Amino acid sequence: MSNKDVNAKSGLSSIWTDSLANNQQPGDKALLAHLRTVHQNNAGFTEKCASSCRDKAGRNSYEWLAEIVPDVDGIRVLDLACGSGPLLKILYDRNKKFKLKGADISPEELELAKARLPKGSVDLLELKAQNLTAIDDNSIDVVLCHWALTLMNPITPVLNEIRRVLSSGAKFAALVNGPMDAAPGYNDVYNLIYKYVQAKLPRYGEIDLGDPRIRSTESLKNLLIEAFPDANISIETSMVSMEGPVAEVAETTAGFFYATFILPPETRRILLSELSNLLVISKHSGDKERQGLFSMPINRLVVTK
Ligand SMILES: C[S@@+](CC[C@H](N)C(=O)[O-])C[C@H]1O[C@@H](n2cnc3c(N)ncnc32)[C@H](O)[C@@H]1O
Prior knowledge:
The protein is of the alpha/beta class. The chain has twelve helices and seven strands. Strands 3-2-1-4-5-7-6 form a seven-stranded mixed beta sheet. Strand 1, helix 6 and strand 2 form a beta-alpha-beta unit. Helix 9 runs antiparallel to helix 12. The site of S-adenosylmethionine has 22 residues, from helix 3 and helix 4.
């Protein structure tokens, strides 16, 4: 049986989950190996949820982040941890004269990005955000990072690399999780998912993917001030939501949380049923198809060098 089959049968395991199970702090290599395995087995999963969730103005979080890029021909943009490339596609469709680069550690995600973008339109690089030596100093006008900064540890070398590649007056903008209480019901969804995950791995949550300082607005701001001492820094909080048949909403919501990949299929099925009951918004028995609603808090940070 291949590793992929074993993971599909009993829930994903890796040297990162083994460390947690053995009460040890996982190291950087374990984190990368875990992330690579998740993305190898589930390439494209982030965009399924992120592109369905919209803010009051009707924008998804890719579109909100893409607004940071000014509409100037020839502008040089790096999408750091570009995954399957949805953000690059939005930018390419907006202006064919943007000079676009995408970098990621997952070959499977980069394959998806390559398949959706016209040949030669974007320079796709298999690179670790902590080491962007393939990209010259002062050669980028905007670095974007959509929903990936939270996964990176160590984080300081990432911020240093971003500072190095940015030209003067350039921008770094990232989309990360917002404060839990900025979206109604988000805390309950988080607690429910981690109840199931912690039944299998009690320390998952206390120890999570990435540097915990990215998860709080205050500590994130302090990290940015340290890395970009002379820059202008802003962090805006917003909320995006998706509504639809509750079973689909529950499936897409669960699929967005990395932690759920460690659950075996039977546990995941029970979680989905409980999650549907939590997300349902039409409780009457006469409802033809029960509807569900999921909302999530997001932060958009913008650093102007
Ligand atoms: C949640 S996905 C987001 C993908 C894409 N930005 C999006 O929003 O659709 C996180 C991505 O970060 C990548 N990643 C995680 N750690 C990384 C690192 N240290 N360097 C580069 N890419 C990394 C993963 O391979 C994955 O594609």
